[in-house]
Design brief:
- This protein is an alpha+beta fold.
- The chain has one domain: Ribosomal protein L22/L17 (Ribosomal Protein L22, Chain A, Alpha-Beta Complex), CATH 3.90.470.10.
- Helices cover 31% and strands 26% of the residues.
- The protein contains 4 helices and 5 strands.
- It has a 3-stranded antiparallel sheet. Strands 3-4 form a two-stranded antiparallel ribbon.
- A hairpin with a 5-residue loop joins strand 3 and strand 4.
- Helix 2 packs antiparallel against helix 3.
- The radius of gyration is 29 Å and the shape is elongated.
- The termini are far apart.
Length: 154
């Protein structure tokens, strides 16, 4: 199973705002996640889309990748808090208010879903699928089964 990740550092948003968008795509297929980000009404969705596309490209370039992007899904995505810039804004009566300009580090991890294993063929005709429960009532015969039984007697 292939795993790849991408990180965008020092993105000019708060980690709390980025988390709102990342929660929308966690666990989804990459194509579905890209469509969700395209129509999300948040400014940070564009940055998350860039990181997701980068993670997909990283997975494609890894050795052992099956080549099917449709099997990739967003395994994990999170936003860590980056350094904050402190600025001062003038306030009335000679005072000053502090403005905190936050940054975030966005990380998206994609992985390949395991291939689905096809179950073995059903049991042969006439054999019960599983053993009958002790004391269970006998199975009722269907119309076709009764007809073949009558033909066998005759």
């Amino acid at each position: 199973m292939i795993e790849a990740h991408a990180t965008a550092r020092y993105i000019r948003t708060s980690a709390q705002k980025a988390k709102l968008v990342l929660d929308l795509i966690r666990g989804r297929d990459v194509n579905h996640a890209l469509a969700t980000l395209r129509f999300a009404r948040k400014g940070i969705a564009r940055e998350v889309e860039k990181v997701l596309r980068s993670a997909i490209a990283n997975a494609q370039n890894k050795e052992g990748f099956g080549g099917d992007v449709d099997r990739l899904f967003v395994q994990a995505c999170y936003a860590d808090q980056g350094p904050s810039q402190k600025r001062i804004r003038p306030a009335p009566m000679g005072r000053a208010f502090r403005v905190v300009k936050r940054t975030a580090h966005l990380t998206v991890r994609v992985a390949e879903r395991p291939q689905k294993v096809v179950a073995p063929a059903a049991t042969p005709e006439g054999a019960p699928a599983r053993p009958r429960r002790k004391g269970a009532a006998p199975k009722k015969k269907t119309g076709a089964a009764r007809a073949t039984r009558k033909e066998a007697k005759a």
